[in-house]
Amino acid sequence: MSKLSLTEENYLKTIYMLTERSEAVHNQSIAQALQNTPASVSDMLKKLTKKGLIQHEPYKPIQLTSKGREIAINIVRKHRLWETFLVKCLGFTWEQIHPIAEQLEHIESDLLISRLDEYLGYPKYDPHGDPIPSPNGDFQPVEGFPLSQAPTGKKLKVVAVKNDKKDFLNYLNKINLFIGSHIYVIDRISFDLSIEVDINNKVLNLSHLIASQIIVNHEDNIQ
């Protein structure tokens, strides 16, 4: 198979990440994720199907083939390792790293990525809490649940965020909520499903939308 273009790699990665979030992948969801037109997406899906990288049948969810999944996982692995490097070694903050890692993830050298993984100490999760696949594609899933589903009166810890958009992460910066932050659900507001929380000893009200993007776990369950 000929070398894939950056666009083709981005499509495979997007399909993988939508699947990772337990979403049924369709033309429209890819178009929304990549901010492309449905017509452009349809053309690319035909190319990827012809190359044996996806399975695409009318009115059915799009799926990666084993080869397509292998390529996608490798791109995701590189992306998340570079994000970790940018934060851990170069002092970037978590809202700055995604677009830079988008460029670095297309570097082809397997040796470089292997050395990068070793240099970082073989991290299991990136700065957003997403799992980093191993060279053979294995990874340790994030153990937790959305803050929007958390019980009241329990000590919790933030383990991941489901949204890596800059505006969302900047808001979390503003309220001093990061991976590892301690959080306590004080009350639920039935009218709009928002929750009252104590974050690092500061009481705040979070909307249901924001709370649904924050993954937490009971402190006793975190290893």
UniProtKB/TrEMBL annotation:
Residues 1-65 form the HTH dtxR-type domain. InterPro entries: DtxR_MntR_Metal-Reg (IPR050536), Fe-transptr_FeoA-like (IPR007167), Fe_dep_repressor (IPR001367), Fe_dep_repressor_sf (IPR036421), FeoA_core_dom (IPR038157), HTH_DTXR (IPR022687), Iron_dep_repressor (IPR022689), Transcriptional_repressor_C (IPR008988). GO terms for molecular function: DNA binding; DNA-binding transcription factor activity; protein dimerization activity; transition metal ion binding. Keywords: Activator, Cytoplasm, DNA-binding, Iron, Manganese, Repressor, Transcription, Transcription regulation. SMART domains: FeoA, HTH_DTXR. It holds the Pfam family Fe_dep_repr_C. GO terms for cellular component: cytoplasm. Signal peptide: none annotated. It is found in: Cytoplasm. Homodimer. Belongs to the DtxR/MntR family. In the presence of manganese, represses expression of mntH and mntS. Up-regulates expression of mntP. This is Transcriptional regulator MntR. The lineage of its organism: Bacteria, Pseudomonadati, Bacteroidota, Cytophagia, Cytophagales.
